[in-house]
Amino acid sequence: MIVIPPIVVALAVLQWLLDRILLQSKEKLWDVDGDGFKPYVGFMIVSAVAVIAFLIGFSAPHGYFWFAGLITALFAVRSVFERKYIPGAHAHIVSYWMGGLAFVVTVLLAIGIYV
C-alpha cells in the first residue's frame, strides 16, 4: 500500500487547487437544502464504507487497481450530484477532470500490475 497514499494525497491537493483556480462560486454540495442533501449524505456514508472495505479486503498488487477504480467511480458519481443539484457553480467540471485523471491513474496502475 505504499503507492496509494501518495496518489490519494496528490489527487486531494489537485482537487483543492482546481477548486481555487477554476471555480468562481463557493457553493458546495453539502450547503444545498432540500432534495440534494439527503442523497449526497447517503453517498458519502456508502463511499466511506466502500473505501474502508476495499482497503481491508484487497491485497497488493490487485488491491491498488480496485482501489483506484473505486476512486474513479466516486469522482464520477460526485460530479453527477454536483451537476444535478448545483449546476450554476460548475463544480461538476472539476469533478469530471478529477474523474478522468483518476481513470488514467487506474489504467496506468493496471498496466503496471498486469504487464
From TrEMBL:
Keywords: Membrane, Transmembrane, Transmembrane helix. This is DUF4181 domain-containing protein. The chain crosses the membrane at residues 39-57, 64-81, 93-114. It comes from the Bacteria.
